[in-house]
Amino acid sequence: MSTSVMPFSVPAHGLEITGSVPAIDHHSHAAYVRPGEKLATFDSLETEIAAGYVESRIPADAYQQFVRANRAGDHAAAAALADRHRIPALRDEARELYRTTAFDRALTLGCDALYGSGSREAQLASARTRLEDYRSLYDDALTASTTRMVLTDVPDLDPHEWPVERYRQIARIDPYMFPFGHDTYVGRGFDAQRFADILSEKLTVELAADGRDSPHATLGEYREFVARSLRRRVDAGVVGFKIVSAYLRTLHFEHVDVVDARAAYDALRTAPAGSTQPVARKQLSDYLVSEIAHLAVEWELPVQIHSGIGHSEPGLRIANANPLLLEEFLNTPSLNRLRVVLIHGGYPYASQLGALAHSLGNVYLDYSWMPYLHSHLTVRVLQEWLEFLPAHKVAYGTDTAHPEIHVGATLLAREALETVLQQGLSARIWTAAQTSMLAERVLGGNVAELYGLPR
Prior knowledge:
Elements: H1 10-13, E1 23-28, H2 43-49, H3 51-55, H4 60-71, H5 75-84, H6 87-97, H7 102-115, H8 120-129, H9 134-144, E2 147-153, E3 167-172, H10 174-177, H11 191-209, H12 219-235, E4 238-243, H13 258-270, H14 278-299, E5 303-306, H15 327-330, E6 340-343, H16 350-359, E7 363-366, H17 375-388, E8 394-395, H18 403-426, H19 432-451
Parallel strand pairs: 1-2, 2-3, 3-4, 4-5, 5-6, 6-7, 7-8
């Protein structure tokens, strides 16, 4: 570990209440590399956030061709398209425009902490030297941000490379919800298709681990495989589940009985390749998410659910990601003990999240992603939630795979929480003891309690 990396200076940042609290990052992607891609430095994140800018300035078919060529490793075709449509120049324009955002502030804070102040080019050169020992760099990020543990949403996590003392895995259940893939996406951008591909690839891996190259002949057999696969992963260290299906479908999960689910499964299994059957796909995924949620109740595992906006590229339909669409699912009597965490503030639905957490005792919230999207809104949302909800309901997180953003987002998360607690103390909403208790709970205690982690 680098000896030059030190935790934040509390007096320098004015974090009198929150600065020294050891944190647990509820929502991370540490150790994540997209299928078919290589571990990359932070400039890849700058390229990623430029995607929406690029997509809106070239023909739609050209954008699709460019992304597909890159994913297929056809570098010549990708380079030709990039040259024809000025994609490098468009990315540079987007990077400059993003310099005024909370994202760039978080990236700057993280780069300065890990590589020293200097030009972005010099910091990038330093980052490249750390790729050979990336885990050590992430450890440095945790030390710099006084983070003692992260819960990371990754397809697989090697406990020998990423020790459980600091890194715990969250597993997406979405791959199991779509055994026969997805209808062809016909909207703008590539983000929805990217998610569909990632989920399908993970299901292929899990089927292979069970000795199969395709889904089972009957729904009953497939359901048994899902339970067997998830149990194996939990036994290997998974501490919670996650649903990201808002990138692909509505969050309105309805009750589907086994007869209708079986009919949907059989229809999709025997359908011609390329056929479109949205009703059957929704029925089957509705049924399977309920089955897996009941396993989570039985195994006492929390479930994270994405709601609200997606990435800075078309794909996710924001109306389909309204958390109020979850009401039917969340009000299922047999799921009253399912611990659900609605993650990263659900922008623009933060107040709706608060209402759900208020009404349902088993619903919790985190404000991951928010600190490096919109600092002032994070303060307003935390004011609303912490005054409205009991102390065990809210948690911090970062929602990043990049150590630089982890550092910056954690500092911004602490700053926002500090602002809210100091204002509440001045307004006599809370006592000094209560602000200390809230800081400890929000920054780690609530996550430890929810997931049964060491305090």
